[in-house]
Specification:
Number of strands of chain A: 0
Structural class of chain B: alpha+beta
Largest sheet of chain B: 6 strands, mixed
Number of strands of chain B: 20
Protein name (chain A): ABC transporter permease
Radius of gyration of chain A: 22 Å
Strand order of the largest sheet of chain B: 6-7-8-3-9-10
Radius of gyration of chain B: 24 Å
Distance between the termini of chain B: 38 Å
Structural class of chain A: mainly alpha
Helix content of chain B: 25-40%
CATH class of the largest domain in chain B: Alpha Beta
Strand content of chain A: under 5%
CATH architecture of the largest domain in chain B: 3-Layer(aba) Sandwich
Number of helices of chain A: 12
Strand content of chain B: 25-35%
Number of domains of chain A: 1
Largest interface: A-B, 19 and 25 residues
Subcellular location (chain A): Cell membrane
CATH superfamily of chain A: MetI-like
Oligomer: heterodimer
CATH architecture of chain A: Orthogonal Bundle
CATH superfamily of the largest domain in chain B: P-loop containing nucleotide triphosphate hydrolases
Shape of chain A: globular
Main location (chain A): membrane
CATH topology of chain A: MetI-like fold
Pfam families (chain A): BPD_transp_1
Largest sheet of chain A: none
Number of domains of chain B: 2
Order of helices and strands of chain A: HHHHHHHHHHHH
Keywords (chain A): Cell membrane, Membrane, Transmembrane, Transmembrane helix, Transport
CATH class of chain A: Mainly Alpha
Chain lengths: 256, 341
């Protein structure tokens, strides 16, 4: 039975990780095509992509969009969660539902909607438009994470702060935000990773300056190459780094 | 800093539920008041209204001569010590205690000095740099008290602050609260459902039930001369003997009593019945007895009224033998009408 469990575990990990492992391995392929057989290791593809200006520009764009849109999404989510947790308004449940609803809509639909709306109000497809799109998809997530973290304990501390003379912004800044720091950080990092490898919205809402996933897509159109694998590996590395940071700092602290 | 508090015909309703009905209360400056009652009696609602966390449906709250009914908590001369302490977990004790002063724009040096002074008062100055999670329940309690008092409120509101502590610590904190209140002179309004705690610390007790005040008086008053059956029962055990008037005497199931009382329920505390007293309750047989440390708690069945049971607290050393027949006497009788008014 024990052996079987281990076999099962191994099978699951293989199933989940094999594609990524293959991707990473063939990014070192010393040949023109990232397909078996493996002809030996080289770093030349990495050198090539790091020297590629378009690609590096897209990488910086992606980082910028991810950081800024996540900051905005976390801030808005935090404010919405604090407000809805503090006061019971008529239709509070409905408001919570509406805030979380975009999570259930596919990115394609959201992207199309944004594209049409931006056309109406005159916002050109750009990194700004993409950033706004990423706020739209990440705000529900941030709201849900922060709202779930506000418990009775927090509420009474906030009440105590008001009782001691704090204005509403002081309550949020001095008490609520520090007390919710682990969930705010979790929300930020999750938003960051979602924005970092989001493709559909970025594809629909960018034109000249593009994000990394869009750039990779255009690379793929010219055929498979170990260079795309190398880019993919880099993107994966960043995501892994974020998750590991999260795991080592926040989640470990939370479980203590 | 201290102020008097006037509560004028305050009523409060939550949707269809009436939590408070026509509450009138005059609290003098520097008094230690306890709001006492079972859960759901409205005592916490009243405290929230005084603190500004709730606006009453009707009536007004006047603190220090100023109408505070619609003033936000942060602008009131009140602070609250919360049931779950509500300390700020990310701040050390000094910053917790200094928070109120910081919000009032007091400079860093001045507020830190004041915070240390307050921590000194509650005996925790050595822990100023620690975070709340490193403290025991009783210590957190003291920090909450220091924090609430650091801003020199006129009125301190205490919401069942000792409920989570064990008995010994609770007694100790009661004494400390009382001492600190004497020292700072602030008006304290303390909510509890523990009548012993209420008597131990209060200058005056407000006994509450179902959203109204049953009795407002000193602990002696409330315990010895209860005004209603509810407050009589709530303050401690009570023997009830129905009596009616017959000429100059009172007649009860125990037989005629040499008292001129009238019609109603004769209420006697268990410790006010014994082998001597101001009037005889006739002979009774001891049914059972249990030793409680400070006294023996005994159940007597009066020979004249076999369906009544009298609970009697006899002093240590007065060893009753089960089955023995003795004459019982009562003192400090209180007569209350049947309907509790």
């Amino acid at each position: 039975m024990r052996t079987l469990s281990w076999v099962y575990l191994g099978a699951i990990f293989t199933f989940i990780l094999l594609p990524v492992v293959v991707l990473v391995i063939f990014s070192f392929q010393d040949g023109r095509l990232p397909v078996p057989p493996f002809k030996g290791a080289t770093l030349k593809w990495y050198a090539k992509i790091l020297a590629d200006r378009d690609l590096m520009e897209a990488l910086v764009n992606s980082l910028m969009v991810a950081v800024l849109s996540s900051l905005v999404a976390v801030t808005l989510g935090f404010l919405a969660a604090s407000g809805l947790a503090r006061t019971v308004l008529p239709g509070s449940a409905l408001m919570r539902g509406l805030l979380i609803a975009p999570m259930t809509v596919s990115y394609l639909i959201i992207g199309l909607g944004l594209l049409q709306m931006f056309n109406q109000v005159g916002i050109r497809p750009s990194l700004l438009a993409t950033g706004i799109g990423h706020v739209v998809i990440n705000l529900p997530l941030c709201f849900a994470i922060v709202y779930a973290a506000i418990g009775e304990h927090q509420k009474s501390a906030l009440q105590a702060a008001r009782d001691l003379g704090a204005r509403e912004w002081q309550v949020l800044w001095h008490i609520a935000a520090p007390m919710l720091a682990p969930s705010l950080a979790a929300a930020f990092f999750l938003s960051f990773t979602f924005s970092w490898d989001e493709f559909i919205i970025a594809f629909l809402l960018t034109r000249f300056d593009v994000t990394l996933p869009v750039e990779i897509w255009s690379m793929l159109r010219s055929g498979l190459s170990p260079a795309t694998n190398a880019v993919g590996s880099l993107v994966f590395l960043v995501s892994v780094a974020v998750v590991v940071t999260l795991e080592l700092t926040l989640f470990r602290k939370g479980s203590k | 800093m201290t102020a008097e508090v006037q509560i004028r015909s305050v009523s409060h309703r939550f949707q269809s539920f009436t939590a408070l009905e026509g509450i009138d209360l005059e609290i003098a400056a520097g008094e230690f008041i306890v709001l006492l009652g079972p859960s759901g009696c409205g005592k916490t609602t009243l405290l929230s209204i005084i603190g500004g966390f709730l606006t009453p449906s009707e009536g007004e709250i006047v603190i220090g001569g100023r109408d505070m009914t619609r003033v936000a908590p942060k602008d009131r001369p009140t602070t609250t010590m919360f049931q779950d302490y509500a300390l700020f977990p990310h701040m050390n004790l000094r910053d917790n205690v200094a928070f109120g002063l910081r919000m009032r724009g007091v400079g860093r040096k001045a507020r830190h000095d004041r915070a240390l002074e307050m921590l000194e008062m509650v005996g925790l100055s050595a822990f100023a740099a620690r975070k709340p999670h490193a403290l025991s329940g009783g210590q957190r309690q003291r920090v909450a008290l220091a924090r609430a008092l650091a801003v020199e409120p006129d009125v301190l509101l205490l919401d069942e602050p000792l409920g989570a502590l064990d008995l010994k610590l609770r007694r100790q904190m009661q004494d400390e609260l009382k001492n600190i209140q004497r020292k700072v002179g602030t008006t304290f309004i303390h909510v509890t459902h523990d009548q012993e705690e209420a008597m131990a610390i209060a200058d005056r007790i407000v006994v509450m039930n179902r959203g109204h005040i049953e009795h407002f008086g000193t602990p002696e008053d409330v315990y010895l001369r209860p005004r209603t059956l509810f407050s009589a029962d709530f303050m401690g055990e009570m023997n009830r003997i129905p009596v009616r008037r017959d000429g100059g005497n009172s007649v009860s199931p125990l037989g005629p009593l040499p008292l001129d009382l009238g019609e109603g329920l004769l209420c006697l505390r268990p410790e006010n019945i014994g082998f001597e007293g101001s009037f005889s309750l006739g002979r009774a047989r001891l049914q059972e007895a249990a030793f409680f440390g400070t006294h023996h708690r005994c159940h007597f069945v009066p020979l004249n009224a076999p369906d009544l049971t009298l609970t009697v607290n006899l002093p240590q050393g007065a060893h009753p033998a089960p089955g023995a027949e003795v004459e019982l006497f009562g003192r400090d009788p209180v007569l209350l009408s049947e309907d509790g008014r």
